Here is the input.
Amino acid sequence: KQVNMSIITPDMSDGVALSVISDRLSKVNTELDNIWILFCSVIVFTMQLGFCFLEAGGVRSTNVINILFKNLGDCAIGGLCWWLVGYSVAVSKGSFVGIDSEIIGFAPKGDSSLLTTTGPFLLSYVYMTTAVTIVSGAVAERISLVAYYILVVVMTAFAYPVVVHWVWNGSGWLSAGNPDRVGGYGVIDFAGSAVIHLFGGTCAFVFSYLIGPRSLIYQIDVFSKEGIDIIEPHNKFQQATGTLMLWFGWYAFNMGSVPAFSGGGSNIAAAAAVATCVASGSATVLGILISRVFFGYYNICHACNCALVGLVSITAGCGTIAPAYAPVVGIIGVCAYFAVVDIRSRLKIDDVVDASAVHMGGGIWGTLCVAFFADSDRIQHVVGPDTTGVSVMEQFGVQLLGTIAIMSWAGFVSAATFYILKYTVGVRVTSAEELRGLDFSEHRTNAYDYIESLEIDRRIAIEAVDVAQRVAEAMISFDLQLATRVLGYRNTSIASNDKLEEDADQMSLLKIAMRNLIRNLTAYKPYLPAHLFS
Here is the structure.
C-alpha cells in the first residue's frame, strides 16, 4: 500500500498493476521452483561418486576397474533407457502400467508445454541411477559386464518404471495421489525407501542368491573364516569416503522430493533435512557401539553400513515424520540391517558390499515405519488436505501391501532376467577369470601400478602343474596312498587307509582321484598344458 504504483506502472490502474505484479511474482516462484529441482538433481547425481568409492573400496583390488565400468553403465546405458522408454512408462496413465507415446524418447513433437517436464525428468533420472547401482555392488566380482549391462536395460526401461508408476504417479494403484487409492492415505513414500531402495535391494538380494558366491582358490568357502579373510575389502578409506559422499548427497535426495520450494515447500525441505541428519547419526552411533560390543573392535564397514541404513530408513518418512522420532527410525533400521545380514549368511548369499542388507532391510522398515510415526498434519501438507481419519493399523496395512507388491515384482523380474541370461549369453565369468580378477580378464589392465594379478597367475600355474605332476607320478607307480595324500587337502572322498587287494580297485579309485583333481584344476586350465585335460 505504501508503494507508489504510478511510478512502477504509470499507464495502469492500481488493480491492473497489482495483477501484473502478482503474475510476475508467480513466474518468479515458478523459476525458483525449477532452479530448486535442478539444483537438487545435480547434487543427487554426485552420489554416483559416492557409490564408485564405496563399491571400489569394497571389492578386491583385482576388480576395481570392472566395478567402475558398471557404475558408468548405470549412468550412461540406464540414462538412455530411461530417456527413451522408462520415463514415459513412469508418467503414463493407468492404475497398473502404461506408456505415454507423447514422451517416448522425450520428444515433445513441437509441443513446448511439455518442456516443463525437463526438470522432473532430470530428478527422476538421478533417482533411477541410485536404484540400479544398488545391484552392481551386490553381484560384483563374478557377473560378466555384458550380462550386467543387459540387466541395467531391463531394470531401467521396464522394471523400475513400473514401481515408480505404482507409487509416485497420481494414477498408480498404490499412489497417495490417486483418489481411488487402495486404502488409507495410499502408500506414503516421500523420497524412495520403497520405490528406490526396497526395489533395488530386493533385486540385489535375489540376483546374489541365484548367481551364487564367488569362487576362491582351493575351493575355499566364502563364508569360512579363511574365506572371509580372502574377500576382505581392499580399501576401507574408499569405503568411508564413499559413505560420507552418499550422506552429503542424501540431503538433496530427500529434500528434492519437495516439488516446489515456494509456498511453504522450503519448510518441509528443512524438516526433511533435519530428520535425515538425526536418523543417520543415531544409526551410525549404534553401529559403532554394536561393532565394539559384539566384535570386540570398531568395525568401519559395519559403521558405514549403519550410517547408510539410517539414511535409507528415514527416506520414506522424512517429509511426514517429525525429527524428534527420527532417531528411533534410524536405530530400528540398524536392527533390520543386522537381521538381513544374518538371513543372508544363513542362506549363503554372497553380497559383496551388503547392499541387500542396507537397502532391502532399511527399505522394508522405512516403508512400514511411516504408519507409526508420520504426523497427520504433515501428511496433509504432503499428500493433500482430504486425507484425514486414517488409523495407524489401516495405514500399516497399506504400507505392508506396497512393500509386498514391490518385493514380489522386483524378485520376479530379477529371477526371470537371471534365467534368460543364464541360457542365452551367460551370467558369470569363468572360474579362471574370477581367480585372476575381472580387471585383467575383461579390461586387460589393473587399477593399481603393481602387477598383482600376474603374480597370482604365476603362483596358481606353478602350484597346479606341481600337483598334477605328483598325482600322475603316483598313478604310474600305483601308489594309492601317495595319490590320496597329494589330493587330501582338496577334500576328496577317498579313504587312503583302507588296504585294497585288487589292482582294478586301486586303478578305479585312482581314476576317481584324478577326476576330482581335474575338476578342481579346471579353474587353472588356461595356465596348464592341454594334454592334462584329455
